[in-house]
Write a structure and sequence with these properties.
By secondary structure, this protein is an alpha+beta fold. Helices cover about 15% and strands about 45% of the residues. It contains two helices and five strands; from the N terminus they run E-E-E-H-H-E-E. The protein starts with a strand and ends with a strand.
């Protein structure tokens, strides 16, 4: 799925790091590390992605619905 970064958050609350928007205007999130650990998932981003993602960037992602939230579970470069 193709998603565009629309906002980023470097605070501990809320528990997402990047907010993304799909081409159909649905919101998706890259969550913080604690969220992925809670669900036994590996975070899809590393420091490299943290440095390279900014508002307006497009990414290809695999997503999953967790607790009524659209969550990015991996990236495809």
């Amino acid at each position: 799925m193709r998603l565009r970064v629309i906002e980023y958050n470097h605070l501990s609350y809320p528990n997402w790091t990047f907010k993304l928007l799909s081409e159909t205007q649905e919101e998706y999130y890259i969550m913080n590390n604690g969220f992925y650990k809670q669900y036994n998932l590996k975070s899809p981003i590393s420091y490299r992605e943290l440095d390279s993602l900014d508002k307006g960037c497009w990414i290809n992602a695999v997503t999953e619905r967790i607790n009524d939230t659209n969550v990015v579970t991996s990236l495809r470069w």
